[in-house]
Amino acid sequence: MIFLIGDSTVKNGRGKGDGGQWGWGSFFQQFFDTTRISVENHALGGRSSRTFFTEDLWNKVLPGIRKGDYLFIQFGHNDGGPLNTGRARASLNGTGDESQVVIMERNGGPEEVFTFGHYLRIYIRQAKAVGAIPVVLSPTPGNRWTNGKMNRMTETYTKWAKEVARQEGVEFIDLNDRTADKCDAMGEEKGKQLFVDSVHTTYDGAIINGQSVIEGLQSLNGFSLNQYILK
């Protein structure tokens, strides 16, 4: 079994293409021999590495994960912004062990907020504890361009996700760079057509992100999941 956790770029809304917006996880099963392995997409729009955990979404996924299953982890798009006001979903920058106690606007109570890397480590370590195989992904690229080239997240969430994966000894796929390369190759005008807005993809954009994930997997020599990818 393959489990996916993440934000709206993995599963948008109910995963039915509302508003023409799709996450790549809605089509991920089409790349695999589904008579041998299946995909469960537990991503939820608007969630960050922090709120997927604090809203108990992870605690609903973890009990279903078994030894030998795969867990794909992709966060970052919603990890910025305010810590304790409004949607209050931000994590602290980086991968360190620092934390900050904030008073939450919504209920007046305290919450200890940790780094982006800290929350990724929770998912990785708890999945490994039951014998599952985590795979960390960078965020997908957004529909933002500079001089005809798509902007990357090389110094923020991509970098931090890669650092955590290396520290924890799990595989990492740079989905940000792989899809941005594809968009650069087709040009800004065509690349922008893969998006509904600054972040969310059309059907075609979601398929391209899925292809980038598969290409990332295929670049991992001897990775056990690859035996299930359709040729």
TrEMBL record:
Keyword check for Transcription: no
Coiled coil (residue ranges): none
InterPro entries according to UniProt: RhgT-like, SGNH_hydro, SGNH_hydro_sf
Keywords: Hydrolase
SUPFAM superfamilies to which the protein is assigned, alphabetical: SGNH hydrolase (SSF52266)
Gene3D superfamilies listed in its UniProt record: SGNH hydrolase (3.40.50.1110)
Domain SGNH hydrolase-type esterase residue range list: 4-205
Keyword Hydrolase: yes
Segments passing through the bilayer: none
Family to which this protein belongs: Belongs to the 'GDSL' lipolytic enzyme family.
Protein name: Rhamnogalacturonan acetylesterase
Native source species: Dysgonomonas termitidis
